[in-house]
Design goal:
By secondary structure, the chain is an all-alpha fold. It is 59% helix and 0% strand. The termini are far apart.
Length: 207
C-alpha cells in the first residue's frame, strides 16, 4: 500500500499585520473626523435657522411686516408685542396673571429684548449658554400661556390642543439646550473667537 506524504500545514498563531491595523485605524479616524464635520455643519445650520426664527419675530413685531404683525401695528407704531397674545390666554394656572401682564411696558421691553438677544446670539454663535437659559425660560412661559394639557378653555369651548405636552415651544427649548451643549457656535459663527476672550475664558457660563 502506497503511502502519500502530505505537506505539513502550520495553523499556529499569527501576529496581526501592523500595516493592516494602521490602515484600519486611519480609516476609522477618517470616518470619525468626517462624521464630526457633518455634525458640526448640521448643528451650525440648525443654529442659524433657529436664530432667524427669533430675530424675525423681533423684526416683525417691531416694524409690522404684515405677517404675524399687521403693517402699522408694530412696536414702533405704538403697538404692544405682548397685549394680543397674553390677553388671549384662556386656559392654565397663570391665566389671570398673564392678563395682568398683557400690554405692560416692562413686559413688552423684556419680551422684545429677549427675542433680539437670543436671535443675535444664535446668528453670531456667541453666548449660546445664556441664550439657552433665556430662551428656555421664555419658551416655558409661552408653553404655560398656551397650556397644551387643557382639553377645554376657561369658557368651556374646545382648546383644539393637538398634544398635551410636546408642542413647538418645548421643541425650541430642547434645540436651544442642544446647541449650547454641542458648542454649535464654532462652525459658521464667532464661537471660537468669543471663547478666547479673557473675561469669557474665565467665566464658562458666558460661552
Amino acid at each position: 500500500m502506497a503511502l502519500h506524504e502530505h505537506p505539513h500545514r502550520h495553523t499556529g498563531f499569527r501576529f496581526p499585520s501592523l500595516r493592516r491595523s494602521r490602515t484600519a485605524s486611519a480609516s476609522g479616524e477618517a470616518v470619525t473626523a468626517s462624521a464630526r464635520a457633518v455634525s458640526s455643519y448640521v448643528f451650525a445650520g440648525l443654529r442659524l435657522l433657529t436664530g432667524f426664527v427669533f430675530l424675525w419675530a423681533f423684526l416683525d413685531k417691531t416694524v409690522g411686516f404684515g405677517y404675524a404683525t399687521q403693517s402699522g401695528k408694530g412696536w414702533i407704531d405704538g403697538g404692544s408685542p405682548t397685549k394680543g397674545f397674553l390677553s388671549g390666554v384662556a386656559a392654565g394656572p397663570m391665566e389671570s396673571t398673564f392678563h395682568d401682564w398683557a400690554g405692560a411696558g416692562w413686559a413688552d421691553w423684556l419680551f422684545m429684548l429677549g427675542l433680539l438677544a437670543i436671535g443675535l446670539a444664535l446668528i453670531s454663535g456667541i453666548a449660546l449658554r445664556l441664550a439657552a437659559i433665556a430662551g428656555t425660560a421664555m419658551m416655558a412661559l409661552m408653553w404655560i400661556a398656551e397650556w397644551p394639557p387643557a382639553k377645554h378653555l376657561s369658557d368651556g369651548s374646545a382648546s383644539m390642543s393637538t398634544n398635551p405636552f410636546a408642542d413647538y415651544h418645548l421643541i425650541y427649548a430642547v434645540v436651544l439646550i442642544a446647541l449650547a451643549v454641542a458648542g454649535a457656535g464654532a462652525t459658521w459663527g464667532l464661537g471660537k473667537a468669543w471663547a478666547r476672550l479673557p473675561f469669557v475664558s474665565r467665566n464658562a457660563w458666558l460661552r
